[in-house]
Design goal:
Layout (H helix, E strand, L loop, with lengths): L11 E14 H6 L3 E11 L4 E12 L18 E2 L5 E2 L2 E18 L8 E18 L20 E15 L6 E15 L1 E4 L4 E3 L2 E18 L10
Antiparallel strand pairs: 1-2, 1-12, 2-3, 3-6, 4-5, 6-7, 7-8, 8-9, 9-12, 10-11
Length: about 230
């Protein structure tokens, strides 16, 4: 079986599994260090190479820059003391998600690959992030129940995103991927009424920036006619 090199551009759904490595900027850099995102997407591609759809990303990371987070409740060795007098460490992680809509266009580079080229995409939606505080022993009183909310810095709001990269959708359907750069700007606000460590409300408005290297694997679902191929 051979490919027809003059196949027209196809229309159909593009289901993707995506990942990115992010460097923070603006207010995000004051709270978190480098992180990563993993997620899913579903887009519809037209024959004229317009692309639009939805995506869901999960934000992750282990670099936390809020130095004052537990001031006043930990000892000089950065440990908590539980009810039994034991010294315990806690783990802190970045967690969150982004849910939004996207639209873009594929600029073809060669007529032999009608569905491949430079993909320019813009998106917008809702984002949320917080500091996940992990007390494995579940015995630190200062972090039990609603007390933990006074430290987690829950933040959410709208975001916009710009992506430029290369997308490859092979004529045979065997290799399909995208890789590029993106920038996320979140216009967010803290959602906690009171932060225990700094003794004030945590409702500041923020600008959360992420610069990412983004890529993913794509499963295209195209409806093809049998005459698109010939056999030898």
């Amino acid at each position: 079986m051979f490919e027809n090199e003059n196949l027209p551009a196809r229309k159909g759904f593009l289901v993707g599994v995506n990942g990115s490595f992010d460097m923070p900027g603006a207010d995000m850099a004051k709270r978190f260090g480098p992180g990563y995102r993993v997620g899913l997407s579903c887009h519809y591609k037209t024959k004229s190479n317009w692309v639009f759809g939805m995506k869901l990303d999960f934000l992750n990371g282990s670099s936390i820059r809020e130095d004052s987070l537990f001031s006043g409740v930990i000892g000089p060795d950065s440990t908590f003391i539980n009810q039994d007098g034991q010294r315990l460490y806690v783990q802190k992680f970045k967690r969150g998600f982004m849910l939004g809509a996207e639209a873009g266009y594929i600029f073809r580079l060669t007529p032999k690959l009608q569905d491949a080229g430079i993909l320019v995409m813009t998106g917008a939606g809702f984002m949320q992030h917080r500091i996940l505080i992990k007390d494995k022993s579940e015995s630190i009183v200062a972090l039990q129940g609603d007390y933990r909310k006074g430290y987690d810095r829950l933040t959410n709001g709208i975001y916009v995103e710009q992506y430029v990269g290369y997308v490859f959708l092979s004529n045979t359907g065997l290799v399909n991927f995208h890789l590029g750069l993106d920038v996320v700007a979140g216009f967010t606000q803290g959602r906690r009424d009171f932060l225990y460590d700094v003794r004030r409300p945590g409702t500041d408005k923020r600008v959360d920036i992420m610069f990412g290297v983004r890529g993913g694997w794509i499963l295209p679902i195209f409806k093809r006619k049998s005459e698109d191929y010939y056999f030898e």
